Amino acid sequence: MTGGRHGYGAKLSNIFSKTFTIDTVDSKRRLRYTQTWNNNMTQAGEPRITKLDNGSKSNGTKVKDYTCITFVPDMQRLSEDPNVTSIDEQDYAVMCRRVVDAAGCAGESCKCI
């Protein structure tokens, strides 16, 4: 794996996923955007843009910017073996390492879960 530019990684992750969801918050404009795609990006759900209530959560703390991407890889497209149903340990370790590397570049405010 290599680092990317111009959003190719996100788009390719979407294309090779059964389900792909983005959830992001812009605290300056107090907006939240969420959208889900299914079946290798062939079915796009309606984007939802919601206004955040005064830029704060219900417990009174300030809303912070974030972007959360969740996806379910389409293993049949990613493997030559049609019986593969999960990512092997080596590929999983590479993905975990990329998350750690990205978090290191993003700084203290980045939280990986």
Automatic annotation (TrEMBL):
<dbReference type="GO" id="GO:0003918">
    <property type="term" value="F:DNA topoisomerase type II (double strand cut, ATP-hydrolyzing) activity"/>
</dbReference>
<dbReference type="GO" id="GO:0003677">
    <property type="term" value="F:DNA binding"/>
</dbReference>
<dbReference type="GO" id="GO:0000712">
    <property type="term" value="P:resolution of meiotic recombination intermediates"/>
</dbReference>
<keyword id="KW-0799">Topoisomerase</keyword>
<protein>
    <recommendedName>
        <fullName>DNA topoisomerase (ATP-hydrolyzing)</fullName>
        <ecNumber>5.6.2.2</ecNumber>
    </recommendedName>
</protein>
<keyword id="KW-0413">Isomerase</keyword>
<keyword id="KW-0238">DNA-binding</keyword>
<dbReference type="InterPro" id="IPR050634">
    <property type="entry name" value="DNA_Topoisomerase_II"/>
</dbReference>
<dbReference type="InterPro" id="IPR036890">
    <property type="entry name" value="HATPase_C_sf"/>
</dbReference>
<dbReference type="GO" id="GO:0005634">
    <property type="term" value="C:nucleus"/>
</dbReference>
<dbReference type="GO" id="GO:0000819">
    <property type="term" value="P:sister chromatid segregation"/>
</dbReference>
